[in-house]
Amino acid sequence: MKDTKELTIMKFGQQDLINMDKQMCFALYNANKQFNHFYSEVLEQFNLTYPQYLVLSSLWDNNDAMTVRQLGQVARLDGGTLTPLLKRLENHGWVVRSKDPNDNRHVLISLSTYAIEQKCDIVNLIQTKLNHLNMTDQEYRERVQEVNDISHRLEQILTTF
């Protein structure tokens, strides 16, 4: 038997579901805006945007070249966003494009030497700024896991209906 949990207006009260400050969607939307602003301030020192950082972070995590499609899947960026973004990263010396030796139809994206050298500086600055959240490592990991769980549940709902 499946254990299901339900939210009802009766439990929360109709007003709680109407007030923006009590809605999860607004809380996540607002937190997203704040994080985008937070990262923008940090990344502007490196002349990077947040989506560009996501691509670099995906490549740093992978430790190897990735196809454009793989990058899009990992960073959750569509082709219309990713293609010009990669071109700008390449023009600024962050990434290198090359043909996939196994399949000439695919382009591989890899980190430039410059991007590898800048990783520590970027990560250290982000870490320094994140310390102002005044969270322990465990609290931080738990919050990330909670948001990932919500995202996963929403993804399941959207693919079901």
Automatic annotation (TrEMBL):
<dbReference type="InterPro" id="IPR039422">
    <property type="entry name" value="MarR/SlyA-like"/>
</dbReference>
<dbReference type="Pfam" id="PF01047">
    <property type="entry name" value="MarR"/>
</dbReference>
<dbReference type="GO" id="GO:0003700">
    <property type="term" value="F:DNA-binding transcription factor activity"/>
</dbReference>
<dbReference type="GO" id="GO:0005737">
    <property type="term" value="C:cytoplasm"/>
</dbReference>
<feature type="domain" description="HTH marR-type">
    <location>
        <begin position="21"/>
        <end position="159"/>
    </location>
</feature>
<dbReference type="InterPro" id="IPR036390">
    <property type="entry name" value="WH_DNA-bd_sf"/>
</dbReference>
<dbReference type="InterPro" id="IPR000835">
    <property type="entry name" value="HTH_MarR-typ"/>
</dbReference>
<protein>
    <submittedName>
        <fullName>Transcription regulator</fullName>
    </submittedName>
</protein>
<dbReference type="GO" id="GO:0006950">
    <property type="term" value="P:response to stress"/>
</dbReference>
<dbReference type="InterPro" id="IPR036388">
    <property type="entry name" value="WH-like_DNA-bd_sf"/>
</dbReference>
